[in-house]
Amino acid sequence: MPAKGSPPDPEFEALLAERFGVAEFPADAPPIVDGARHRELALLLRKRGYRVYVTVVATHFLAKGADKAGPEAPERYEVATALRTVGPGSKLALWRVVVPVGGSIDSLASIFAGADWQEREQFDLVGVRFEGHPDLRRLMMPEDWEGHPLRKDYAIDTPCSPWR
Fold first, then answer.
1. What distance, in Å, lies between the first and last C-alpha atoms of the chain?
2. Cis peptide before 149 (omega within 30 of 0)
3. Among 54, 106, 113, which Cα is nearest to 83's?
4. What is the CATH number of the domain that holds 123?
5. How many domains does the chain contain in total?
């Protein structure tokens, strides 16, 4: 999904289709890339001039059963990554990786310095593990905090001293 007002980058979409086997390009979300090739894609984009690590955003999804609306889906994370080129005609590359709960995704911190704290934030708040991260520990919550407050199954009324 391109940034608001930006057309999709046909070169990026062609790369995803030809080299990474991506067949679906939803109008309302970034395409899904195989998690085993996430790091490979980032390295290739870096060589092609994508130097700015814009963001990583993780979302937790609870399992959906056959009794609910829509297709069945296991509990999972979706991790969206955005990279950008610099200068006039800047291009944006966005993709998602589906990560099973209990699984991990390769860290991009050794490729993009900007990934370091952003990956830590997603680990801390959502619970996604970034394999190969140099210092994957809590960033915002106290070290002894239990759970990840942005997961869908996290109790909204969890006591939080000194506020409750």
1. 40
2. no
3. 54
4. 3.30.460.80
5. 1
The two structure tokens encoding residue 135: 């210092």
Q: Can you give the length of the chain in residues?
A: 164
Residue 154 lies in a domain: no
Domain with 99 in it: 10-131
Please name the amino acid found at residue 95: W
Q: Is 108 inside a domain boundary?
A: yes
Gyration radius of the chain's alpha carbons:
17
Could you tell me the two tokens for 48?
Answer: 């092609």
- CA 101, CA 163: separation in Å to the nearest integer? 30
Could you read off the pLDDT of 70-103 as tens digits, one per residue? 678 899 999 999 999 999 989 999 999 999 999 9
Q: Provide the whole-model pTM.
A: 0.89
Query: Residue 84 forms beta bridges with which residues?
Result: 52, 92
Q: Provide DSSP, 79-132.
A: EEEEEEE-STT--EEEEEEEEETT-EEE--TTT-TTHHHHHHHHHHHT--EEET
**How deeply is 144 buried, as exposed, middle or buried, from its count of CB atoms within 10 A (0-12, 13-18, 19+)?**
exposed
144 found inside a domain: no
Phi-psi map region of 93: left, alpha, beta (phi>0 left; psi -120 to 50 alpha): beta
The reply to whether 124 falls in a domain is: yes
Q: Which residue has the tokens 């699984």?
A: 103
